[in-house]
Amino acid sequence: EAGVAQSPRYKIIEKRQSVAFWCNPISGHATLYWYQQILGQGPKLLIQFQNNGVVDDSQLPKDRFSAERLKGVDSTLKIQPAKLEDSAVYLCASSFAGPSGANVLTFGAGSRLTVL
Amino acid sequence: GDSVTQMEGPVTLSEEACLTINCTYTATGYPSLFWYVQYPGEGLQLLLKATKADDKGSNKGFEATYRKETTSFHLEKGSVQVSDSAVYFCALNPTGANNLFFGTGTRLTVIP
Asked: What percentage of chain B has pLDDT greater than the value 90?
């Protein structure tokens, strides 16, 4: 099966500019996640979707970050305006199970953002 | 709240040496526990998992046992190879939830 696709792989922008990342999960996976991985740290959950609904966005900085999954398949994460501290790898993951219960997340290769 | 504390690195070992990376967790109920690995230039990959107390997860020569009495899930391998060089993340899936909490990662370098 095809993996989780993400683009772009790399992006360099200046602070106060905007950027968007795209993710296409594994076919049939109802749950989609966006994680932020700052250099030297573990991934941190930003937002979790179940189909096209938001399950958890408690850690998403909503003044500058937004995400959508309009048709319950692919998703876009946007940052506007970007700050220096947003420099990180943005990881998309998907899983098959419903809103609760142990299951395996499959991760994409990530989108590395550098804010200058 | 739920959290994972992972042994800090980096760890440098000679080929064929024994590996242990410590991981302890804080959580209510009975979380599931995972080890993910990130090879250079690649995304996170599941290495192994355990879903209940005393379960042992294993894969590619790596093992970890879910110890509820010590709230630990230490990663072990008896003989590491150069190809095992990567960053290893311990992660927790809380009871009744569907997301993961990650540790800070431990970078392992194996030298010939």
From this structure: 81
